[in-house]
Specification:
Strands 1-2-3-4-5-6 form a six-stranded parallel β-sheet. It contains twelve helices and ten strands. Helix 9 links the parallel strand 7 and strand 8. The model has no long low-confidence stretch (mean pLDDT 91). It folds into two domains: 210 residues, Alpha-Beta Barrel (TIM Barrel); 41 residues, no CATH class. Helix 9 packs parallel to helix 10 and helix 11 crosses helix 12. The chain is globular and about 65 Å long. It is an alpha/beta fold.
Length: 278
Amino acid sequence: MGGGVPVTAAPGMLTAPLFVPADRPERFVKAAASGADAVILDLEDAVAPAAKDAARAALAAALPEAAIVVRVNAAGTPWHGADLALLDTLPAVGAMLPKAEDPAAVAGLARRLGEGRRLIPLIETALGLHHAAAIAAVPGVTQLAFGPADYRNDVGCDDSPEALLLARSTLVLASRLGGIAAPLDGPCFDFRDPEATAGEAHHAKSLGFGGKLCIHPAQVPAVRAAFRPGAAEIDWARRVVAAGGGGGAAAVDGAMIDAPVLARARRILADAGEQAPD
């Protein structure tokens, strides 16, 4: 990643985690088999207020064998305390905190979770975005995520890429400064259109995101494919490493190879699962 802030050791970066309502246990196993790299069991937006207690019970009784993150209800809601008490009984799962705004509150949750568990603050408001760098720097935070729907409502912008560019770029920068994994973009709400999902995922990747939240199993393959290096990228990276790995002056496709270009090529090969020669 070049010079600057090192990425801290933490549970692996998520690329295509899948939301599942916590009160729908019949969907848990299917979600775990979807190819998603984690299942986010949602106690917040996907569960009606009257069903929160039943959702907690269903989650505890039917926890699938998969990487699990629980999206708790936001701090200050009537259900937040009970959600955290449930997490205390499920030490293997991580947590997603919606409406994350206060670095001190995030730090308190990180201490409660302890080491080795994912903590993903969901940035959904102007205040959360303002504090994004401080939140990313909290020990125990593993990855930020963007909640574009609530963010749009909070600041009054539309859903165009231009209107959300500042927010997305701020989260990428905050994550890098905090030394954590690249952030997760919000989901594509048109889950019936794989091309829409793929287009949004490619856009997020181009900005420096590391993955994208999914709300339907059909989105998982498109998101995973978008964040994998393509064949043309891998071919370019191989040729750059072959030409420039010796340290002398070289060019590929008419462009000179310098240290940042070589570092990017090595990163592409690493993302593709290839070992680049030293």
